[in-house]
Amino acid sequence: MTRVIIIGYMGSGKTTLGRALSRTMQLPFYDLDWYIETRMHRTVSQIFEERGEDGFRLVERNMLHEVAEFEDVIISCGGGTPCFFDNMDYLNAQGDTVYLKASPSVLCAHLKMARTERPLLKGKNDEQLKEFIEEQLQKREPFYSQAHHVLDVDVLDNRDKIQQSVEQLKNLLNL
């Protein structure tokens, strides 16, 4: 049975790389945020607005326990997923966890374009965004670093870079 669980900060390429790996491996791909939205019939932003971050994290944990039981899958988690409850221990027990590690400058470049769609980034200017990412990474690194594997990623802005990262990931996981 293959169960690969990809973690890392928002904007690190978890969905992009997870989807590409799933195509290469011919395995189903689940993005936890998308799974939550499908099951809850609400966007992540709506859940944040209605229930606050604590309420969202509880929903996220429950949905994580559903999707992480699936067999022969590639799963990408939300950036905060490993950092709440016992989620990181649970993820490590469920499959091969991979931390996509990206520098704050790479993350900032990715997230500048998507900040209006992400509840934790709304309303931040460029400098506030950079500071927020650096602070969050510092807090989250102890959780992320518990993953079984670490893959340093750069900007995944074209097919060649994505495919190279997929090959690195496959080698890392002995797939």
Question: Summarize this, please?
Answer:
The chain is an alpha/beta fold and 175 residues long. 55% of the residues lie in helices and 13% in strands.
The topology string of helices and strands comes to EHEHHEHEHHEH
Strand order of the largest sheet: 2-3-1-4-5
Please state the average pLDDT score.
93
Strand segment tally: 5
Tell me about the largest β-sheet: 5 strands, parallel
Provide an overview of this structure.
This protein is of the alpha/beta class and 175 residues long. The protein contains seven helices and five strands, in the order βαβααβαβααβα. Helix 5 (104-112) packs across helix 6. The longest helix is centred in the first third of the chain and has 24 residues, at 44-67. It is globular. The N and C termini lie close together (11 Å). 35% of the residues are buried. The model has no long low-confidence stretch (mean pLDDT 93).
List its traits.
175 residues, 55% helix, alpha/beta
Show the helix and strand layout.
Elements lengths: L2 E5 L6 H12 L3 E3 H9 L3 H24 L5 E4 L10 H8 L1 E6 L2 H9 L13 H19 L4 E4 L6 H15 L2
Parallel strand pairs: 1-3, 1-4, 2-3, 4-5
Helix pairs in contact: 1-7, 2-3, 5-6
